[in-house]
Specification:
The structure holds two protein chains of two kinds. By secondary structure, chain A is α+β, with helices and mostly antiparallel strands. Chain A has helices at 14-22, 24-30, 132-146; strands at 2-10, 40-43, 50-56, 62-73, 77-86, 96-106, 109-119. Chain A has three helices and seven strands. Chain B contains six helices and three strands. The chains are: A alpha+beta, B mainly alpha.
């Protein structure tokens, strides 16, 4: 299982970001990687409450994820489960992962940290083999130099 | 949404689980092109074993073999590695643009909030956010 963490500075106070993360209006305004409208949301921001977001890809495919709020500490922290039920990121349909978001006030706004963990780390969920993490490290190193030869 | 050929990737990742094969790839990355003999030289295994590893790497699309007269030159084939790396970065490709949108949305909301606070005049300015 792998995870990714992204950190960024946003020129908005934590409370504004927290609202964008935990209200239907907020989620509908941004929760997609594409410049297309989010088509459905369900946001019941309390522990055990349901989260749902549906958005189209540019190729017309629909993507939908559902989750459950696990931790809510406005305006600084939330944790939720995440599961693709339609489309989504390749190889992860039906697999439950975990998203943790932390908001820290900094000068001029907030520092936003998103950690998405318990991600499946093999293309089709094949048996986990020894040497996997070393293979990844090597691959990443190879990629840094070979990408430019392509 | 972010699709890859899973079976091809399985072959790539399976090929990468072996340390000898990773070393072969690392050497090809440094040397660009090597004959099979030169490639096999530093390994404490016999040439047929090296050939088997090259078959696995070839089937995964990670190397190409090209016959040059009496020798076979082996090269790294970066396209499949790139695809594999993209696969590993697939959540980054989801989150990075999504967080761009979140930031743009929140910053617009923040600007609205500041405007209404300024217009209100009752509230103190929250320049420190």
């Amino acid at each position: 299982m792998t995870s990714i963490t992204l950190v960024r500075q946003v020129a908005a106070r934590p409370a504004v970001l927290f609202e964008a993360l935990t209200t239907s209006e907020g989620v509908a305004a941004w929760w997609s990687p594409f410049d297309l409208p989010v088509t459905a949301t369900e946001v019941d921001a309390r522990i055990g409450g349901i989260f749902r977001v549906r958005f189209p890809s540019p190729d017309g495919e629909e993507n939908e994820a559902v989750g459950e709020y696990l931790e809510l500490a406005p305006p600084s922290r939330l944790a939720m489960s995440w599961r693709w039920v339609d489309g989504g990121v390749a190889g992860d349909l039906g697999h439950t992962s975990r998203i943790e978001i932390e908001l820290r006030p900094v000068e001029g706004g907030s520092e936003l940290t998103v950690t998405h963990s318990d991600l499946r780390d093999e293309a089709s969920g094949a048996t986990h083999e020894q040497g996997w993490s070393a293979a990844l490290a090597k691959l990443a190193r190879l990629m840094d130099t070979t990408a430019y030869h392509a | 949404m972010l699709n890859y050929q899973d079976r091809d990737l399985d072959r790539v990742f399976a090929a990468l689980t072996d340390p000898t094969r990773r070393e072969i790839l690392a050497r090809l990355e440094r040397e660009e092109s090597l004959s099979i003999k030169a490639l096999a030289a530093p390994f404490p295994i016999k040439l047929p074993a090296v050939m088997k590893h090259l078959d696995v790497l070839g089937a995964a699309g990670l190397i190409t073999r090209c016959k040059q007269g009496r020798t076979v030159d082996v090269r790294l084939s970066p396209a499949r590695l790139q695809e594999a790396a993209e696969w590993l970065r697939r959540y980054e490709r989801f989150w990075t643009p999504a967080l761009d949108r979140l930031a743009a949305h929140a910053e617009a909301k923040e600007a609205e909030a500041r405007q209404s606070e300024a217009a209100d005049g009752q509230k103190t300015e929250t320049a420190d956010g």
